[in-house]
Amino acid sequence: MGGTPPGSLARPSLQVRRKWRINSPIRNLRDANCEVSRVVSGTREMANTLPLPISQFHFGSYTVNTLEALAKSFSEGKPFPHVIIDDFIAVDDQEVCAAFPTPDWAFWDRFDDGYQFQKRHCSEIVRMPVLYRNMIHELSGPAFLRILETITGIRGLLPDPYLYGGGLHLSGPGGILAPHVDFTSLGPLALYRRLNLLIYFNSEWAEEYGGCLELYEKGRKEPVATIVPSFGRCILFRTDNQSIHGFSRPIIGENRWRKSLALYYYTSEGDNEIIPDGVTYWQKHGHMSRGRLIQFLAYKMLIRGSQLLSEYAHKINPNFRAGSKPVTFGER
Prior knowledge:
Layout: H1 14-23, H2 29-49, H3 64-76, E1 82-85, H4 93-99, E2 109-111, E3 119-122, H5 130-139, H6 142-152, E4 158-159, E5 167-171, E6 177-181, E7 185-186, E8 191-200, E9 213-216, E10 225-227, E11 234-238, E12 244-247, E13 258-267, E14 281-282, H7 290-316
Antiparallel strand pairs: 1-11, 2-3, 3-5, 4-13, 5-13, 6-12, 6-14, 7-8, 8-11, 8-13, 9-10, 9-12
């Protein structure tokens, strides 16, 4: 029985080959070069006539003055550098909300621990609806990276192709995200996390519904800033060991779900003021029974011990000392 062996390419049929010979009479190298030039030229002309892809966002129309204003707001943000950008999304809100996966979507990963109660998330971009895939691709592209660099002053920003900890987020009735400090290094890629970008897809959300993003100053129990997760609102903030955030007020309403997209941006070089750490540190822990309190104290001691070891390791690294010679990598 005939067929093509696995892994091999099928030969074109005789009919196709004959047709190609009739329509493309290439007899020598000069003819071949002319044919290639014709195809390349035609491809360029076709590319020049294709319409540009429609942006999902408004950042393409930002003027120099707009970017300067955003940069000023970011640097002056309290309790740590951040900026709020409203009307960030260019797509109709009904279309965006309709495309967002429902709570019973099969591809959600679920969290129901005390720190992330009633939370679902998906970081597998191939599973997401096309609209959200396109959003992530656009926010990971060179044009938007340049805008982020202009606003924040951080150069050499990179997106995370694996969306580690990011992607689509959904929190339901009674849901919270305890105030925390995010990890500052992405070990598998040897990158340093520098920025968080959050975009919300919640129509008609009010502060009394709970679930509002809270920004904390280290050492304070109450938030310095409370941000309603309204549709089309984008929050960009610096990621370091001072950027405590979360939403401690539970979401109120039987059928109310908090929808968002989270993206994180990295650099290949770290900030000398930030000790890289791959651990998320929770700042609030709720009420505990005596037995749980003993376990929690052991947890706190181990966490603190790991922090001290990390700090000590950086202090004894000779390359961090003032006046150190430039690092050399041998002869090339």
